[in-house]
Amino acid sequence: MCFLIAGIAAALSAFCYAELASRCPSAGSAYHYSYICVGEGVAWLVGWALILEYTIGGSAVARGISPNLALLFGGENSLPTFLARQHFPGLDVMVDPCAAVLVLIVTGFLCLGIKESALAQGIVTAVNVFAMLFVIIAGGYLGFKTGWTGYEVPTGYFPYGVDGMLAGSATVFFSYIGFDTVASTAEEVKNPKRDLPLGIALSLSICCCLYMLVSIVIVGLVPYYAMDPDTPISSAFASNGMQWAAYIITVGAVTALISTLMGSILPQPRILMAMARDGLLPSFFLDVNKHTQVPVNSTLATGIVASILAFFMDVSQLAGMVSVGTLLAFTMVAVSVLILRYVPPDEVPLPSSLQESIDSYMLRHNSDAQMINGENPAKSPGDPCLPLLGEKNVAVDCTVVEKLEALSSCTLDEENRRKIAGWTIMLICVGAFILTFSASNLWFSSLIRFTLCGAGGLLLLSGLVILTCIDQDDERHNFGHAGDTADQEFIIILLLFEIVRVATWVRVSVWLMIGVLIYTFYGRRHSSLLNAIYVPKAHVDEIYRSSGATL
C-alpha cells in the first residue's frame, strides 16, 4: 500500500514533468520550468535547492556502496587498506576513500558523452532488475512453500494506522526519483515530444510493479516486526535457509546504488549550465565539449564536490535535506503546469545579441501584415487616408468605432480570464498548503486542526471548481502538446510535511538564505534579463530560425 500510494503521487508528478518536458525541451528541468512560468527569483531558489539535492544525494549514495562491496569480498573489513574506511579519533571523522573513488569514476563516465553514460546505466540497471526478479521468483517459491508466515500476525493489517501508512509512503516515495533526471537531459533527446513522456511513463510503471512485488514477497516471508532493518531482503532469505542468496542480492544492491549515483550526478551539470546561461552563475559552467556535447566544467565541478563530501562527511544527517529539495521542485513543477495552461507568459525575453535579427524580423512581419490588410507599406504613417477615385460612397461592414469597441471587449475578456485564473491558482496553492500543514501536524488541538483542514479543503475545492469552469489559454498549444490534467501539488505537499522534521527545515532555511544572498549580490547583477528584449512568444521560433541561433 505504501509503494502504491507513493507510486500514484510519483505518477502525477511524472505527468507534470512529461508535459513540461515535451512543451519546453531544454536543460535545467524544474529550474527551467520555474524560470519560464513563475520568474527568475523563484527559479533560482528551485535551482539552488536542486544543487543541494543532487550533491548531497550523490554523496550519501556513494557512502552506501562501500559496505556492500565489502560484503562481496567477505566482510566489513575485507576491502584493501587504501579503499577501506578509516576513523580519525582526534577529528571524529570517518573517511571513505572507496566512496570518493567511485564518485570520480562515475564522473569520468559521464564526461564521455550521453550515449556512453546511457550504455553504462543500462548495464547496471539490467543487473539490478535481474536481482529483483530473482527476489520475486525465489521469494515467491519460498512463500508458497512455507505458507506465507509473515502475513500470519496477530495485529492484522495497518498496525500503525493510516498515519503510519502515509509516513511509510513519504519514506519510499524517493525510490521513484529519476524521471526528473530524464527531463533534465531534454536537449540531448532526438524527439523530446515523443520520447520524454514515453520514457518517463514506462520507467515509472516498471519501477512501481517491481517495488510492489518485492515488498509483497519479503513481508510475506518475515513478519514486519522481525525484519533486520539493515539487510531486510538478505536476512529474509537467510532465515529460510538460502544464505547463498545474499550474494546475488548484494550484487543487486551495489548496481542499484551505482545507478542511483549516476542518476544523482547526471542532471546537476545541466542545471548549472542552464543557470549560467541565464547569467545567474559564472560563465565557467557554460562550456560544452564539442565532441561529446557534455558540459564538462559543470560535470567535473559536480563530481569533485560530491567526491569531497563522500570522502570526509557523514552525510546521513543531511539526507533529509535531499527530500526537501526534491519535493519543493515537484511542487513548483505542478504549479508551473497550471500557469502554462491558464496564464502562460505573453512575452519571452531574448538576449540583446539578437537585436538585429529581432528588428529585421519585426520589420518584415509588419510589412507582410500591411500587405495582407491592403495597405501600402511604403506610405508614411502620417499620410491621410484618401478615398479611391470614383468611389465616393464605399459600403463597409462596420464602422471604425464598432471595430475598436469589439477589440476592446475581447481584450478585456481575455485580461479578466487571465486575472481570475491567476488568483485561482494562488487560491489552490494556499488551500493545499493549509490543508496539508494542518492534517500532518498532530500537535494541534482537534478543534484547530479540523477548522484549518476544513478551511484549506474549501479553498482547494473552490479553486479546482473555478479552474474547471475557466477555459484554458488558447495560446497554450504554442508550447507543445497538452498532457493529462492532473493537478497533484496536494499529495506532494502532504508528503513534504510527513517526512520533513523541524531540524531539517532549519538546515534547509539556512541553505536557502545563502542562496538568496548569492542571488542578491551576484545573480541579479549579472542576470541576462537586465538587457533582455521582450518579444511576443509567437515570434520567438522564427527569430531564432532567422538568426541561425539555437533556442
UniProtKB/TrEMBL annotation:
Keywords per UniProt: Membrane, Signal, Transmembrane, Transmembrane helix, Transport
Keyword Membrane: yes
Residues in Cationic amino acid transporter C-terminal domain copies: 494-527
Signal peptide: 1-18
First-listed, main subcellular location of the protein, grouped into a coarse class: membrane
Location(s) in or outside the cell: Membrane
Name by which UniProt lists this protein: Cationic amino acid transporter C-terminal domain-containing protein
The organism of origin for this protein: Gossypium laxum
